[in-house]
């Protein structure tokens, strides 16, 4: 019987943790108007956000913009659209930056800055939050990695 | 992808904010993209016995590392990059400024599912998970690298970075992303500060060079990096030359075959690596062979990392290194060399560490090592021999990167 209060405490803690993430909404991709229509499936997004693919099919260089690693929206976007964890991406980027084998994405401070820079930079791609995701998408802990597809891909 | 209509709508909506952003500074549209990055870290090392990375038995700050780099993407298929770095680590590194890498990278194939290119210049050698960025603590699991990387055992100069040509490629096949890196390095000189760690001819003058070195790595990354498996191979030959009057010459072949495996979960990562390290030494005096030996060293570790929060992480590691895999206990060595300590042929290290990253730029690391054996010590740093086989090592490091 003594276990019960402890269990309740743990459940309460978990719920508090989950509710803390309520503000995190699902992410949608934005691109600069100069970018041609190409399917942004997971494979292409991974190639773009791991900085392996450096140009759009019609030629212009890809410019990648991201929110800080610990921004809940970054976390959601990487999980949902790339099927990757934020820390795995960061270690890839750090490795490129400190071996001279690639450029890191440009980190912006807010979604407003993200929209403005993606709008203003030819070839740019980034992500912002989208209103009204399904309720279960609001609990990131329950989102299985790489199994949630946004209808916008 | 967004429809043209909604893009137009968004464009109207955002015109004002774009204008504001452009006042602050818009990058020229088609200009080359460039970036500057850097890192700096200061360490503190304390040992209960023996000296490691400086006079650590009194507490040493003789361990720091810093670097500054620039990269320019001239075209999507052409990049130039270079990094200058300094590092001091007791006797094993001396804090002189060096060119870490300087390369031109031409990518002749770039598709969604495959890419390939060539790098020319001074390039980093891909060995295991950590060799290429071994001096940047933000890319390491802790302050001290596992023994597989021989941070205090003289192989840095051989495997770290060297002038040469590098071929690389990626191929995505279903869940798998295969990558390959192969490097051929040119003949090069060993720095004087490294020579003294490798060869002791009792004060006689000598010159040490590295010839015929090459390396290759194949890595398979599954499910966006959740699983990673790799095999790395390195071969390098040191050649020793002395003036004709002395007449001593030698070749020292060093091979490394490194197996790597990692599982990256949301909160934790498990990493294991194992290296086989054959050393074949031949020395002649006046053309007559005076030494011929072959030893295969062996080092491995199992490491767990746990991310408590985005700011705090814990690390635990079991590490074992043996100078001769056919004589792991060192008893054979002790029998053949009267007075020698068998524990100098091995090192077992249990490590617990913690890492705090208050933001994306700063990090603080702390770790404690319980060590049995003295194979990881530098003789020049412990001139009277190890003071004890069982010793502990505390390492702290504070670092900044941008």
Structure description:
The complex is a heterodimer of chains A (153) and B (402). In chain A, 39% of the residues lie in helices and 11% in strands. Chain A is of the alpha/beta class and 153 residues long. Chain A has a four-stranded mixed β-sheet with strand order 1-4-2-3. The radius of gyration of chain A is 18 Å and the shape is globular. The N and C termini of chain A lie far apart (51 Å). Mean pLDDT of chain A is 79; it is low at 12-24 and 133-153. A 16-stranded antiparallel β-barrel of chain B has the order 1-2-3-4-5-6-7-9-10-11-12-13-14-15-16-17. In chain B, strand 10 (227-241) and strand 11 form a beta hairpin. The two termini of chain B are 32 Å apart. The interface between A and B is large, with 55 and 60 residues.
Topology:
The complex is a heterodimer of chains A (153) and B (402).
Chain A: H1 3-20, E1 27-31, H2 42-49, E2 63-66, H3 72-82, H4 86-97, E3 106-107, H5 111-120, E4 124-129
Parallel strand pairs in A: 2-3, 2-4
Antiparallel strand pairs in A: 1-4
Chain B: H1 4-25, E1 33-47, E2 60-75, E3 78-89, E4 98-110, E5 114-124, H2 156-159, E6 161-173, E7 176-185, E8 188-189, H3 192-198, E9 207-222, E10 227-241, E11 248-264, E12 268-285, E13 288-307, E14 312-322, H4 331-336, E15 346-356, E16 362-372, E17 390-401
Antiparallel strand pairs in B: 1-2, 1-17, 2-3, 3-4, 4-5, 5-6, 6-7, 7-9, 8-9, 9-10, 10-11, 11-12, 12-13, 13-14, 14-15, 15-16, 16-17
